[in-house]
Specification:
The structure is a single chain. The protein is of the alpha+beta class. A nine-stranded mixed β-sheet has the order 14-33-32-31-15-27-30-29-28, with helices on both faces. Strands 17-16-26-25-24-23-22-21-20 form a nine-stranded antiparallel β-sheet, sandwiched between helices. It has 39 helices and 33 strands. Helices cover 43% and strands 17% of the residues.
């Protein structure tokens, strides 16, 4: 759609914070949208006349009448279409009609929904999530088999009790978590907003807001939907918003109201407008927007382009004044929702490994059952016997393993939260603490995570003079002398050198106080705060204030400074050239009102400014020195202009502004050819972004632990590179390879291939180039970058952060950990295997969405290297021991059945089977969750120990088969207490068990056949208690007390379980010494082998601890 219009005003980003500036030139031209891929912030916001023909003195509103065409209602979707597209964003552009609610239907509802379940889907989804793992499915099938009379063995509770307990705990936890999510959703959806209607403003809940509504958003109120800013209470037509929950940046952003609607006399005038707003199709990029506002009046259509500077995205907050916005995107179509990935249930790698081992154990169970039936010649109802054997041997995969692991994870979580060295730590996902000990890649945000986001100017270098630290006070004294000299008489030549130094300092301080986009904002309490799009700008203005030059007032045309002696210095702002990622510099043309002197000030990156300023021999060297200190450098230059030179520039610049084709290039050419050459170099500043406490040591600790670190930030390349150096993310011996502004896939791959095989290089890449790789060369990119010690991704969107995280997971198959502190980090945190959120200045959104919540980045080292080590090592040992506990009793059952002609008869029934995995062994076995293989000091002093954990050797096929061998040996040892019934059965038993121990046991207990249960079970309990003492590395009080208490409890139970124990036999001396011999034969060889292994091949940590 094209409209006729008269060009009288021009608006650019520079003009956001100040009033609109009239221009004398008029032109008629078609509408020209800013393209979505444009990254030049200097592109004008409109391409048309001032307010499309609306002057300040005469604002005529088109009124509703029969002569003006009303748009037809949108075609409605049927029920199936609405259901199918319920949570999917739209893929087509939209036209929104002003004050025509009937024509704006059919868009996504503005409902926040983070719930994972509803009443109908809760149980099916939760049960599917549980039984999709073979481990749980196996238990379910075994339990269900007990409803078949021919297969029933023992008590039904023995099989259903543990499974039901596990399911109830899981279902209860999921129900509670989802209920809390529902409450948070209801709270957000019920927030009240004021909607503009024909009767004025009326309150409606957030969930009732629709596309086309005009909503009043008050100061400090969250924006409920993506809107176009129509009006603001600020006279300049601009307002500040806080975007920390969208892009992670804490600096306020400036937004500009549509010029036409801002000039209307009152808010109610908006409701009388007729016309439409064109908006591009919803997409994820929060930095671009293409739209057109067209207003229909009796004289014709008047149109003006809209860009991202006119937008108010969902979840941002109005920081100054009140605003009226027109809703363009709601619900699933908003930028915030499209950049948010919904969390999936996280399963730890140890759980997956146990699930794989359980399949092997199931195979062992099946083969053993078939073998028992086969050795009996497949006689009778052999298939029934096979199933009974499967049930008898089901303890090979003990359900108590799941209970023990879940309880162990709860203990680990409590230990983490009670650790006084990392106070206020919260574990929100207690199912994956073992993952903390397996991390290979750490993906971290920058702003607020590694840094405090508090900038401070640390160094000022002027060629022959350098100031920093305590010498900054000299700057203040020189300024005082300089301003006093300007007011007084010319000083004596004796003080000429001092005067020259003071004059140079005044010039650079004045340049810094004028050349910026900072706006002073007066708070409700009268305090003055500085707001800008970059914290560097605020830091510099605060520094000029600290040395005596204060930014007192600023609007579009004027800047007023207050000097150290109270004098006011006024400047007229003639032109402003904002900083962009393309130009890497900003400039301003001002006129000193007291002297009439014209000045062009410019500051920017050293790589650009070194070509613009006059020749010098110190700039490159000092920039390198500051960069090595981790300081962010800015070069400041100045050029004095004559009136003729300025008028020549102004004419060329205005012509470039009105150029329809290649406008940006023409504007930049005019600036470069008339202003940006031969600038006087005033000096160089070094700004420090303060790191959080302990960041340097923590990153070094993690790097020594073998963890590869990626920094994903929305900040620009220069800033991220400085932080990477100052935080020691990039070590001194590593080179930095930068890839930026790549648009050609071939050229990009050529740049990337330079890093192939370079293990001492770090990559710095911007978001545009990163997206090119993700779209065209994803596999090649991740193949090369995952081998680098450090990668810094700049200008990353929340979606890119999450995509990189998922890409590393899928390509490497290794464990990832993501840490951040803002709402823009939530997708990355949820995509990683382990998500860590920091509670900081950007709120708690990341903390609430994370698996673990910390208050400082430095706590991460202890969380991974100490708690991660303990959680993984303990769970690995606990799981294998519980499997061993089930294997040994199954092996005993197999030997017992082989002696009794392979009959599927249970060796232990009733309470003995229930008590074996609970009261008789559970407490000592569970004491493994408190074991420590190394001391806390050793784990943190030698981070290299962490590398062994990532190899997964604590729970592997090798360790599994070692435990399987131990179980077979001990199970047969204990069943050798069974006497021979006849020679055939003895021979069969010997063939299965391997001979010597069976012969010894047969000889010892040949006459005690009726006491088979009491003999073998007592030896089994003693064996397990001794095995705990053998396996545990560090004996602790709980282990000792549990061993003694459990054994006493077992002895006491013999007096109550009279059907299983013959007291007259148990109280004999023969019972005691013979059980002791069996226990010794089954346990002491393992002690001896363990001792030999310890001496011949000791663990690496024993060498460190002496």
């Amino acid at each position: 759609m094209f409209g006729r219009r008269t060009r009288q005003n021009h608006y650019s980003r520079v003009d956001m914070d100040i009033n609109l500036q009239p221009m004398s030139t008029t032109i008629r031209s078609p509408i020209k949208h800013r393209s979505s891929d444009s990254t030049d912030d200097a592109v004008p916001l409109i391409d048309g006349a001032e307010a499309m023909g609306v002057s300040e003195g005469d604002i005529s509103l088109p009124m509703h009448s029969r002569d003006l065409h009303r748009p037809p209602p949108r075609k409605q979707q049927n029920a199936w279409q609405r259901f199918r597209n319920k949570n999917k964003p739209s893929k087509v552009p939209r036209t929104i009609y002003l004050s025509a609610a009937d024509a704006n239907r059919g868009f996504a509802p503005n409902v926040i929904k983070n719930q994972k379940y509803n009443i109908a889907t809760f149980l099916p989804i939760v049960l599917y999530e549980q039984f999709k793992f073979f481990f749980n499915l196996y238990f379910l099938l075994v339990a269900l088999s007990q409803f078949v009379p021919a297969l029933k063995i023992g008590y039904l509770f023995t099989y259903f009790g543990p499974l039901a307990f596990v399911l109830m705990v899981t279902i209860g936890k999921e129900a509670w978590d989802d209920w809390k999510r529902r409450q948070r959703d209801e709270e957000a959806n019920s927030q009240l907003y004021q909607k503009l209607t024909s009767d004025g403003f009326k309150g409606i809940p957030s969930s009732a807001i629709s596309v086309g509504d005009m909503i009043l958003i008050e100061k400090n109120q969250r924006i409920p939907a993506d809107c176009i800013l129509l009006r603001t209470t600020e006279t300049s037509g601009a307002c500040f918003i806080r975007t920390d929950q969208l892009d992670g940046e804490t600096d306020w952003k400036l937004r500009v109201a549509a010029p036409f609607t801002q000039k209307l006399p009152q808010d109610m005038s908006l409701f009388q407008l007729q016309g439409s707003l064109y908006a591009e199709a919803p997409h994820k990029d929060i930095h671009t927007f293409v739209g057109t506002l067209t207003v229909t009046s009796p004289s014709g259509e008047q149109s003006e382009p809209l860009s991202v500077e006119n937008t108010l995205w969902t979840n941002t907050v109005i920081a100054s004044g009140n605003a009226v916005g027109l809703v363009v995107y709601t619900g699933a179509d908003t930028r915030a929702v499209m950049n948010t990935s919904f969390p999936s249930t996280k399963v730890g790698q140890l759980d997956l490994e146990i699930n794989r081992l359980s399949k092997i154990l199931a195979g062992v169970t099946f083969v053993l059952s078939i073998t028992m039936v086969g050795l009996n010649g497949f006689r009778g109802l052999w298939y029934i016997y096979m199933f009974r054997f499967l049930i008898l041997f089901s303890s090979i995969i003990p359900i108590s393993l799941r209970v023990n692991l879940d309880m162990g994870k709860t203990v680990y979580s409590m230990q983490i939260m009670r650790d006084e060295s990392i106070p206020d730590t919260v574990v929100r996902t207690s199912t994956i603490p073992e993952e903390l000990g397996r991390i290979e890649y750490l993906l971290t945000d920058k702003t607020g995570t590694l840094t405090q986001n508090e900038m401070e100017l640390k160094r000022l270098h002027m060629g022959t003079m350098s100031y920093g630290g305590e010498s900054m006070e000299d700057v203040r004294e020189h300024l005082r002398a300089s301003y006093e000299a300007r007011r007084g008489s010319e000083p004596n030549t004796r003080y000429r050198r001092t005067r020259d130094i003071a004059s140079r300092i005044r010039e650079i301080v004045q340049a810094l106080a004028v050349c910026h986009n900072v706006t002073p904002v007066i708070g409700d309490d009268g305090s003055v705060a500085y707001q800008a799009s970059s914290p560097d700008e605020v830091a510099i203005v605060k520094w000029t204030e600290s040395v005596g030059v204060t930014l007192y007032f600023r609007d579009r045309q004027n800047i007023r400074l207050r000097t150290i002696n109270g004098q006011m210095v006024d400047f007229e702002v003639l032109e402003m050239f904002p900083f962009t990622s393309e130009t890497k510099r900003m400039g301003v043309v001002v006129r000193d009102k007291s002297t009439g002197e014209l000045m062009f000030y410019q500051k920017g990156a050293d790589t650009i400014m070194s070509k613009i300023v006059q020749y010098n021999d110190w700039l490159d060297e000092e920039c390198g020195n500051m960069a090595r200190e981790g300081l962010r450098t800015l070069v400041i230059g100045r050029k004095r202009l004559t009136e003729e030179a300025y008028q020549e520039f102004r004419q060329r610049y205005q012509e470039a502004k009105l150029n329809v084709n290649d406008r940006n290039a023409m504007m930049q050419k005019a600036i470069a050819e008339t202003l940006e050459y031969d600038l006087e170099l005033l000096g160089l500043t070094g700004v420090e972004d303060k790191l959080q406490d302990g960041v340097k040591s923590t990153l070094e600790l993690l790097r020594n632990a073998g963890i590869r670190i990626w920094m994903l930030t929305g900040d620009k390349i220069e800033t991220a590179t400085c932080i990477a150096i100052s935080s020691r993310l990039v070590s001194r011996n590593q080179t930095i390879h930068t890839i930026s502004r790549m648009r050609d896939p071939v050229t990009a791959m050529e740049e990337l291939s330079l890093l192939y095989g370079k293990a001492d290089s770090a990559l710095v890449i911007d978001g545009e180039s990163l997206q090119l790789f993700l779209d065209r060369n994803k596999e090649e990119f991740i193949k090369i970058t995952t081998r680098l010690p450090a990668v810094i991704c700049c200008r990353c969107s929340p979606t890119q952060k999450a995509e990189i995280t998922r890409l590393i997971k899928e390509y490497t198959g290794l464990r990832t950990c993501a840490i951040g502190d803002g709402g823009n980090d939530v997708s990355m945190i949820q995509a990683a295997h382990v998500g860590v959120g920091l509670v900081g200045k950007e709120g708690k959104q990341a903390s609430l969405a994370a698996d673990f919540s910390l208050t400082q980045f430095s706590y991460l080292g202890r969380l991974l290297l100490w708690h991660g080590r303990n959680s993984y090592k303990r769970s690995a040992k606990l799981s294998q021991f519980v499997i061993h506990r089930g294997l040994i009793i199954s092996i005993m059952q197999a030997v017992f059945s082989s002696i009794f002609y392979f009959a599927p008869i249970a060796l232990y029934q009733g309470f003995l089977m229930v008590g074996y995995a609970t009261v008789f062994t559970m407490a000592p076995v569970f004491s493994l969750v408190l074991d420590k293989d190394v001391s806390e000091e050793t784990a943190l002093l030698y981070p290299e120990l962490y590398k062994e954990l990532r190899k997964g050797r604590s729970l592997s096929y090798k360790t599994f088969f070692i435990w399987l061998t131990i179980s077979v040996y001990q199970g047969k040892s204990n069943t050798e207490a069974v006497p021979s019934v006849n020679r055939i059965s003895v021979l069969r038993a010997i063939r299965i068990s391997g001979g010597a121990i069976m012969m010894l046991a047969t000889w010892l207990f040949e006459d005690e056949f009726v006491n088979i249960v009491s003999i073998s079970f007592t030896a089994l309990i003693c064996n397990e208690l001794l095995m705990v003492a053998l396996e545990i590395t560090t004996w602790h009080p709980y282990m000792i007390y549990s061993e003694i208490g459990t054994f006493a409890m077992y002895i006491a139970s013999m007096w109550f379980l009279t059907s299983d124990f013959d007291l007259t036999f148990i109280l004999t001396y023969a019972f005691v010494w013979k059980v002791a011999v069996i226990t010794a034969v089954s346990s002491f060889p393992l002690y001896f082998l363990s001792f030999l292994k310890w001496k011949l091949n000791p663990p690496s940590y024993t060498k460190l601890e002496g």
